[in-house]
Amino acid sequence: MVWTSLGSRLVTGIVFMRWLWLARTNAEVIEPARHRHSPMWAVLGWIVPIVSFWFPQMVVRDVWNAVNPQRPRGTGQLYRTPGAELVTWWWAAYLTNQVLSTTGARLTENTTITRGMDTVAAVALVVAAVLIIKISTRITAWQTNPR
Question: What are the C-alpha distances in Å from 135 to residues 60, 63, 87, 147?
Answer without folding.
Answer: 9, 10, 7, 18
